[in-house]
């Protein structure tokens, strides 16, 4: 089946789709011996696609999971303190996967796990600033806290990008951040005079937790993988 070359190069681990456009614009990609351009399509099963003269390798089969992490689990593969780990929850997935980023012991919600090192690096690199949205149940003066949470803040000597913070119910906030500093949302709330009772990540980039039950996991769809690789 024919697909745009940007998508094919991304699926084969050559680059992101955006970087693939640069390869095409620079004339580094050929299809059946002819220089390809942005917008061209090809069939990776039928056509001879090359980058800098080298044929594409078939992508290794990788595993991409979404987990609804419960509270009380640490985001690691093993724990010297004997605490429960997210690795135990996805033990039946058939692959050795690792978490992409972290959710602390008392936090819950969307957590990605994979065995794809390139994608892990891309999602965690600070330059990508992937949005993360949280539902936060708090105690304290929310009206007074909102200007603080939305304003300039600094953690560990690092100036944070202004967060998008909106009320999402009685004592509940929607908090969207772009970084992933240690316990960032909890520390932001503490600086604004709020006590966090519950914290749940509901979105990362364009991926939403949806109705996935607590403690359950599922494989990402092809469409969701495309969103991650944008």
From TrEMBL:
Gene3D superfamilies linked: Alpha-L RNA-binding motif, Pseudouridine synthase I, catalytic domain, N-terminal subdomain, RNA-binding S4 domain
Record keyword RNA-binding present: yes
Annotated source species: Flavonifractor plautii 1_3_50AFAA
Pfam family, one: PseudoU_synth_2
Protein's recorded name: Pseudouridine synthase
Enzyme class, first EC level, given as a word: isomerase
Entry's family note: Belongs to the pseudouridine synthase RsuA family.
Source species taxonomy: Bacteria, Bacillati, Bacillota, Clostridia, Eubacteriales
Keywords for this protein: Isomerase, RNA-binding
Biological processes annotated in GO: enzyme-directed rRNA pseudouridine synthesis
Segments forming domain RNA-binding S4: 3-61
């Amino acid at each position: 089946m024919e697909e745009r070359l940007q998508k094919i190069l991304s699926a084969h681990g050559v680059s992101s789709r955006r970087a693939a456009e640069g390869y095409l614009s620079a004339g580094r990609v050929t299809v059946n011996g002819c220089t390809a351009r942005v917008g061209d399509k090809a069939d990776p099963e039928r056509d001879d696609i090359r980058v800098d003269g080298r044929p594409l390798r078939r992508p290794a089969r990788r595993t991409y999971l979404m987990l609804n992490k419960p509270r009380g689990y640490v985001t690691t593969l093993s724990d010297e303190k004997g605490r429960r780990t997210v690795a135990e929850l996805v033990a039946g997935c058939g692959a050795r996967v690792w978490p992409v980023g972290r959710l602390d012991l008392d936090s819950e919600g969307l957590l990605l796990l994979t065995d794809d090192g390139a994608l892990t690096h891309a999602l965690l690199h600070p330059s990508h600033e992937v949005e993360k949205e949280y539902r936060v149940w708090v105690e304290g003066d929310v009206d007074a806290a909102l200007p603080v949470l939305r304003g300039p803040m600094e953690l560990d000597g690092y100036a944070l990008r202004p967060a998008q913070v909106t009320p999402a119910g009685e004592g509940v906030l929607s908090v969207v951040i772009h970084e992933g500093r240690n316990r960032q949302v909890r520390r932001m709330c503490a600086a604004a005079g709020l006590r966090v009772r519950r914290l749940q990540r509901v979105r990362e980039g364009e991926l939403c937790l949806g109705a996935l039950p607590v403690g359950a996991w599922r494989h990402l769809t092809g469409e969701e993988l495309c969103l991650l690789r944008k």
